[in-house]
Amino acid sequence: MEAVRLHGVGDLRHETVTAPAAPERDEVTLAVSVAGICGSDLHNYRTGAWISRAPSVAGHEFTGSVTALGEGVSHVAIGDRVIVDSRWTCGTCQACRNGVRQVCTNLGFLGEVIDGGFAEQVTLPARNVIKAPAGVADRYLAMAEPLAVALHALNLMDMPKGAEIVVAGCGPIGGLITLLATRAGHPVKILDRDNARTALVAEATRAEVTSFEALSDHYYRHAIDTTGSPM
Ligand SMILES: [Zn+2]
Ligand SMILES: [Zn+2]
């Protein structure tokens, strides 16, 4: 099958590789339909920050349909389209055994610890997939992970109904936060150094475009920085 594998820093190759092995117990195999490129994929490509094995089929934001089931898998069926949880957890550490896998001592990501979604097929733990709702296009399903990040950030904010929020950065995370916040009835002000991105998010969400200068003489109770940049 065709796959895109990261061999090392700056060394990403489009290759023909053997298809993944048949799923073992509690695993599933997917035919990947759409895979997105995350900011962390770019970071890993440039710095190797999370290369724990190489080569590895990259990609942790993807969707597809189930083509094979390992023993013991019953929550999805062959042919189901699925949403993929990008986290790989060990299942055996104290945190995993206590049911708090999000703080697994050995936490890693699909595409890093095991092969990911930049391939025609992928075999992964069945607990990483849930059945997708009908009628949602694959290109949206592949964005479940960044959408979850945006939702989690907003949930942590716990804003009063109708409270105004400033979102700095109009990349995927800032854009999705803005989309969710405006849909929940919050007035949102957005800013980004990239005018085209700001305009796109404003058009999709009806958020108000602002600037760093315009913000500096007001006090804002709620703000999210999605840039990680001091300027
Ligand atoms: Zn991601
Ligand atoms: Zn664990």
Domains counted in the coordinates: how many?
A: 2
- CA radius of gyration is 20 Å
General shape: globular
Give the number of helices.
7
CATH class of the largest domain: Alpha Beta
Please give the CATH architecture of the largest domain: Alpha-Beta Complex
- Runs in which pLDDT lies below 50 for 5 or more consecutive residues are none
Distance between the termini: 44 Å
Order of the strands making up the biggest sheet: 9-3-5-6-10
| Helical content class | 25-40%
Structural class: alpha+beta
Total E-strand runs: 14
Average pLDDT score: 95
CATH topology assignment of the largest domain: Quinone Oxidoreductase, Chain A, domain 1
Small molecules (ligands, ions, cofactors) in the structure: zinc ion
The H-and-E topology, N to C, reads as EEEHEEEEHEEEHHEHEHEHE
Strand content: 25-35%
Biggest beta-sheet profile? 5 strands, antiparallel
Quick one: CATH superfamily of the largest domain? Medium-chain alcohol dehydrogenases, catalytic domain
